[in-house]
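FORM 12-B: Structure-to-Sequence Request
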């Protein structure tokens, strides 16, 4: 059985003008799909054949020689998680999530400033990640396809900072993209539901 491109959770123009249909058609239709196509050329005949995507990510992360399988499998999950964390609907952190933002970062404004700093200063390709660790929220960044889930991390939100994520809409202005993402694209209700699932039984989204 081969891996499939998970459906986008909204229409290709749903995030416009903040993230254009042009960006989504390339990012989802070409880049995300490209990782699926590539993984399906790498896995047949290996020990990963027949495994779930989650197991492929976990197992290949331990084998240096299987870096290609790790990169492509992790990129499938990372992108599905990224799409699911955005929507066109206005939302704001509330309740437990808002409390954790305040106790972890000081305030929503401090949280935003730290998110912009971590994401803008990540060198090269990768993602910034909001994770839940030891009862608090943590912001960090990881290179290329690296993902917290390969080491048991509990992600609440990721932001793709590869140039393909923003170049069509913002050219080289990564900080403009980050501010737009944080202010208008993040679906905080999804972040809150991810937090609730993690606090209930440690589960993260499966794609
Ligand atoms: Mn991407």
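FORM 12-B RESPONSE
SEQUENCE OUT:
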């Amino acid at each position: 059985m081969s891996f499939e491109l998970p459906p986008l959770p909204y229409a290709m123009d749903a995030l416009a003008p903040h993230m254009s249909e042009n960006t989504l058609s390339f990012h989802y239709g070409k880049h995300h799909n490209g990782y699926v196509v590539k993984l399906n050329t790498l896995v047949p005949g290996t020990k990963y054949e027949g495994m779930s995507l989650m197991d492929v990510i976990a197992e290949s992360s331990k084998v240096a020689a299987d870096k290609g399988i790790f990169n492509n499998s992790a990129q499938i999950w990372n992108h599905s998680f990224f799409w699911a964390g955005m929507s066109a609907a206005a939302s704001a952190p509330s309740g437990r999530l808002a409390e954790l933002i305040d106790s972890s970062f000081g305030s929503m404004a401090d949280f935003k400033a730290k998110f912009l700093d971590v994401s803008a200063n990540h060198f090269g390709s990768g993602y910034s990640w909001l994770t839940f660790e030891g009862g608090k929220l943590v912001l960090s960044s990881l290179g290329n396809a690296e993902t917290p889930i390969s080491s048991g991390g509990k992600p609440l939100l990721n932001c793709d900072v590869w140039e393909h994520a923003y170049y069509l809409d913002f050219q080289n202005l990564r900080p403009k993209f980050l501010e737009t993402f944080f202010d208008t694209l993040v679906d905080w209700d999804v972040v809150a539901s991810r937090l609730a699932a993690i606090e209930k039984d440690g589960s993260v989204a499966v794609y």
